[in-house]
Structures are given as C-alpha cells and as structure tokens.
Amino acid sequence: MIKKPVRPRPVRSSTTQPWLRPAVAVALAAAIFAVDAFTLLGMAVAVLYVLVVLISATFCDRRRVVWIAVGCAALTVLAFAVSHGIDLDSTAFARCLISLAAIGITTMLVLQNKGAEQALREQASLLDVTHDAIIVRDLGDVIRFWNSGAEQLYGWSAREAIGLNPHALLQTVYPLPVHEIMRSLYAKDKWEGELTHTKRNGDVVAVSSRWSLQRDDHGEPIAVLETNNDISERQRAEKDLRRSEAHLAEAQRLSQTGSFGWNPESGQITWSAETYRIFEYEPTLKPTSEMIVSRTYPADRTSVQHLLVNAGTDRENWAMKHRLLMPDGRVKYVSVVAHVEPTGLGGFDFVGAVMDVTAARRAEDDLRQAQANLAHLNRVSTLGEMTASIAHEVSQPIAAIVASAGAGTRWLAASNIDEVQQSLARISRDGHRASDVISRIRALAMKRPPRQDRVPINETIREILALARGEAERGRAEVRTELAADLPDVAADRVQIQQVLLNLIVNGFEAMSSETISPRELVVSSSEDASGHVLVSVRDSGPGLDDEQLARVFEAFYTTKSHGIGMGLAICRTIIEAHDGRLWAARNEPRGAIFQFTLPSIDANAS
Amino acid sequence: MSEEKSVVYVIDDDQSIREALSSLLATVGLEVHAFPSTRDFLAVKRPDAPSCLVLDVRLPGVSGLDFQSELNNSEINFPIIFISGHGDIPMTVRAIKAGAIEFLTKPFREQELLDAVQTGIQQDRLRREQVAGMAGLRECLETLTAREREVMAHVVTGRMNKQIAADLGLSEITVKVHRGSVMHKMGAKSLADLVRMADRLGLSAANRR
User: Which of B10, B13, B16 best probes binding to A when mutated, by most A CB atoms within 10 angstroms?
Assistant: First the structure.
C-alpha cells in the first residue's frame, strides 16, 4: 500500500498558494488508487490518472512530469494486481492496458506542450535582455507586450502599460501623419522613422523607431511590433559634431589653413573646404594628385611630384613649402605638413594641413626689401658724411698725377727720358688709384640685391681703411691694423661687410673727435676664433660706453651723437646676423670702446 | 746767387705726392728730401743750405698748421709752403699769419709750386745772409778791448772826442787812438756805418752813461 499524505480540503485550482496544486494532485491520485484497487467497478477508473498528469504539468518541469506519469502507471498496475491477482482476466486486463495507454498519450501531449511553452518563455526573456524598448500593440492600439527595455526607457512597468493606448501614453510626435505611416506599414510590413516620446518623468526623448507588422497563419495582420531606441544622446553628439565641424571650418578659413587626408595606396584624397579654397577648385570636384600638380608652380612641380610618388613608400611624416600658380597668374605660397595615421591592417593615411602663407611671405619679402633699402640709405648717408674725406681720397692721386705730368713735361724738355718714363708710370699708377677709389664708392652707393661672395676679410679691411683715411686725418687719429695672416675667407655680401666696417670705423673716429682726447688711436684687428669663425674688432680710444649705452647701442634710433638718426649700428647688427654672425660692443682697455663681429668662414660653412 | 745747392723738404703722408713732387722739384735742380711724417723729418740731420719746407696740412698725428707753430718756437725756421687737399679760408689765414709763403690747394699747377719754392729759398738765403752778417759783426766786436768798447759806445751816441775824454778821464789823444782802432777793427767806413752796426748789435742804448 502506498500511503499518500491526505490534504484536508481539495480546492479549486488557484495561483495564490503554490502548495495547493501538488496537494490536489496527490489527493486525486490517492482517491483514484483507492477506487481502482478496492472497488470492483467494471470500468477503467485508472484512466482518471490523466487528470493527475495534467495538474502536475502546471507546476512541474518535463522530467518531473515524466516521473509522475510513470508513478501513475505503476499505481494502475498495482491496483490491477491487488484486485485481480495475477489472474489475467481478459476484460480487466484490457481496461488496465487502456488506462496505461491513456496515461502515456496524455504525458506525451503534455511534454510536447511544455517544450513549446519553454521556447516561448526563453524568447520573451531574450526580449527583456535587449536595451531596446519593445512594445507589441494590437490593431486596436492596445499595448499587449512591454519589455524591460521599455520599462527602463519610459518609466512605466509592464503591468501599468499593458492594456493602454501607446500613442496616448507616450504622447508620440510623428514625423508624418499617422495614416501615411500605417499605409506604408501595411504595404511593406515595416516602417522606420524617428519619433519623439514623452517619458513618465516628463522628459522628451527622441527615438529611432522600427515597426513591423505581425500576421497570423492566414496572413491577416494581428499586431504591430515596435522597437524603439533612444537617439537623444546620438542626436546631441551629432549636433556637437556639426558645431565643432563648423568651428573647425571657421578656424580653417580664418587661419587660411586647410586640412586633407590622403591614402597613398588607393590614391584617395579628401580636402576640407578651406583646402578647396586655397587650391581654388570647386568643392564638388573629387581631389586628385593631378589637380594638385596642375596648380603647382611649374618650377616646383618636380619636387611635388617626387613627394607624391615616394611618400607612400617612405611612410614618414613630411613637410614642404612650395608655390601654387592660379589660372589667372597669381602665385601663392603654401606650407604643407602631413603625418602618418595608421588605419589598422597595416595600412596608413596621411593626415595633414595646407597653410596659405602668401601674406606672411609677402610681408617677409617687404621686410627684406625695407631692410635692404635702409641699409642702402645708411651707406649713402655715411658716404655723404664722408664727402670731404672721399674728395680728399680722390684729389690726392689726381694732385700727384698733375705734379707728375708737370715733372714729365720738364724732363722731356731736358731730354731725360728715364725720368719721363718714371713720371708716366706714376701717372698711370695714380690714375688707377683714383679710379679704384671711385669704383669702391660707387659699389657702396649702388643699390643692388644682396649676394654671397667669397670675401677675403683682411683685404676688405684695407680697402675700407683706404677709403676712410681722409676721415682719420680729419679727425687726426692714428690707425693701426693687427691683421692675422692666413685667415680663411668668409661667405658674405662684400658690400654689406664693407658697410659694417665703414660704420664701425667712422663711429670710432667720431668717438675720438673731442679736442681733449689724446692719443687718438683706432685699431682694427682680425683673427680666427676657436670655433673657426673670423673675428674682426675695431677699438677706439674715445670716452667709451657706459652700461646703459652698452645695453642700448644697437637699438634703432638710439644715438650718442649730436647728429645722426641712430640707425647705423642697428643696421650693422641686422647685416651681421643675416650672415649668421654676431656683433657686440664692449669696453676697451684702458679706455674707449671695442666693437667686434664674427662671421662664419667659408670652411666652417662647408663643414 | 750762392754756389751751394738749395734743399727742399717735402712732408706728405701720401707716397704718390712725395714721389711726384720730388721728381718735379728735381727738374729745377733742387735737392729734395721727402718724409711721410713730421717725426721722420725731425729725425734726420739737415744740411746747412738755403732750404724751404713743403708741408701737407693734414698729417697723421699732428696737423701741418700745428707743426708750423712748433717750428716757429724752435731754431728751425724754414719758409713754409702749405699744400692741402681742401683748403678753407680760416686755415689759409692762420697759415699765412704764422708766416707761410704760400697755401696751395691740390691739385695745383706745377709752376705755382715751383715759384713758391723759389721764393721760399730766396727768402731763406737772405735770412741766412743776414744771420751770417750778424755773426761777423759779433766776431769783430769780440776783438775790441774793454776800453775800445767803452769808447765805441760813446762814439755811436754822437759825442765829441773831447767830451768822451772828459767822461772817461782820458786824454783827447788817447780817445782818438782808440776811436781809430775801433773803426778799423769793426771794418766801419764811416761813423754812420759804425752807428748802424752798433744798432744791429743792440749796443746803442745799452751802454749809455
């Protein structure tokens, strides 16, 4: 006998108490067994076990259902044995078999049903896993399904939402009239668009919405499955992106700097709006390397083409400056930089910037021109101040020529041919000397673009001292030179270096012009310093410079003289620095000032 | 004209000028010594001959004009001819006032220089002769005895023999003898001659009384 716990009251199936249904099932099974085993009703009572299987199916999983079914079958066989022994009475045995068959079939059906149900539940839980809000509404616009994504997005729970009208609940704003959306939905079974919903807390949210029409087996529409996801964040990001792009475009336009991308492998080039503007192409054109080359100034094309060909294999950051030639003949100067940007899979792009530096270049050219003009002005004005001395320099050989000519004439009359010849030789020599002075002055006074010469510094010093000799005599100054032998030449503009020397030497004489100064001595020396630079110094024995003067003497418009505009030394410094040299002032011992400059020698330049 | 050769000194820092002037001055038979600076000029021994100096105004160290004043304060007093690359009036005036013969601006005509040099040498010769005459007088004076000098001093003031004899406490005869001896020793041809000599020697007023 198998005793089953007996429940006092069999109750109707209810969901409120979990223990009720198992209790009902056990009671039912016990009742059936008692009737089957101990009454002699000539009917298949055991068929009723199917009720037990059905009830157990509501709270058991498939395995337990199978075990319960097996238990029921065992009870059926046991009851048969109790009431009929092992007598295989044909009718009773047939009833037993029918009962067993009924239990078996019912179990199978239950199990099948259970499998389908589980699959459905798994699917539904999948819908809960996704972050998208999924809503199913029937054709009467009643919400039938509301997943956890929808709960999170909108703030209403499934229990609250199901049964309500979704459009009213969410205050949907459609991009199109609703009937058009529905028409499209019926025609294509789906619709996609952006909607605006209002959440439970009143926030407005933009969603990307996909609708799909669900149909039954007969193809009749039954429901609409709506999948919404929040794109407010994306929209904001897009807006930010658009704004920063606008800022970038504005910055590019203001700075006249365009950007570009270039994939050397595919040859694909992208340009920003400003790059199009710099190259002066229509923004609708797709940029190509041919377009770049055809805008490049003819003389620069080779180097640009070389870069376009080789940059892809070199795979290095690069920068270059070149000119562009516009169809109307305008020339632009551009400065281009690019760096390597790996794209994954071993490929790379060049990402770079093109800057229109024409204006800066023009300003630079203008500045250079202005400096050259100023330097020329300074030379001419220095020469102007030296007019008397220069006239003396020219009149000296001419006086000698006149005297020699007189002497020659007289020697001729005396038939002293030897002396005549000597006189003529002197005339020729002094004539050349006068013409040398004049050509030196002309070179200094001439306006010409700076150039690189090979300048022997000692010879240049001697030339300028010859020119300034008149100044020395006028100022009653003695000039000494201490020139180092075997100095290397310097690479410089000869006239400009002469100008610097002339300025420094004339300044030295002027510093010693006061009556009280004695002795008046100017020493010009040259040497080679440790770093292979040529050092030239001009020392005077004048009153020298105090600290403030030392600090400011190279400033433009600073002057210690009663006349002059104070540009001479500023110009000298500009000239020397343009030659990669240095010009500075110091105190001379025991008194006076010393101005010295260095210039790189040709050898130092070459190495 | 003296038989001795005249000498011209040229001081100019410009070698071309020195050479040209040396050659030019040599054409008229002058002995030329050229120097680049006043220092060099002062350093050499100069021959005793009528000389003149051709001096550049602008010289290294010291100007020609300063050198002129320097020379004026020394025993070297050759006539000076200035040459200058550019003369201005104040410079010229200063030079001439200080005794320069000529101020020539380069380039000058050769005849101008030659004329100026001849003038200078002539002047120097006269000066030399004058100096030489003085020297002779002094030598003569040296030969006089103290008494003879006393007598001479009185004679040149125009006093009579008798008066002199009274002043000096001598006899008239003795004064007469001394007077004859003074005239002879001094080489004076007349009383007026002796008075002139005494004048040049600065005796006239000095020994009065």
Answer: B16
Across A235-261, b (16+ Cβ under 10 Å) vs e yields: eeeeeeeeeeeeeeeeebeeebbbbbb
> Residue A500 has which token pair?
């610097």
Do B109 and A398 contact (CB within 8 A), yes or no?
no
Give A604's pLDDT tier (boundaries 50, 70, 90): low
Provide φ and ψ at A512, rounded to 5°: -100, 15
How far does chain A reach from its first CA to its final CA, in angstroms? 117
Six-digit token string for B50 = 């009528």
Report the candidate in B148, B150, B131 with the shortest Cα–Cα distance to residue B186.
B148
Residues 6+ apart with CB under 8 A from A546: none
- Total beta-carbon pairs less than 8 A apart between chain A and chain B: 95
Task: Give chain B's count of helices (H) and strands (E).
Answer: 9, 5
Q: What is the interface pTM, i.e. ipTM, of the complex?
A: 0.73
pTM of the predicted structure, to 2 decimals: 0.49
Distance from CA of B61 to the nearest CA of A (A): 6
Which one of A473, A480, A512 would you mutate to disrupt binding with B, by most B Cβ within 10 Å of its Cβ? Answer: A473
- β-bridge mates for residue A583, sequence order: A597
Question: Does residue B107 have a cis bond before it (omega within 30 degrees)?
Answer: yes
Residue A22 to residue A148: CA distance in whole angstroms? 32
Of A88-97, A188-197, A585-594, B16-25, where does the model show the most confidence? B16-25
Cis status, amide bond into A519, omega within 30 of 0: yes
Q: Which residues in A306-464 belong to E strands, given as ranges?
A: 318-325, 331-344, 347-356, 453-455
Please tell me which residue of chain A has the smallest CA distance to B21: A403
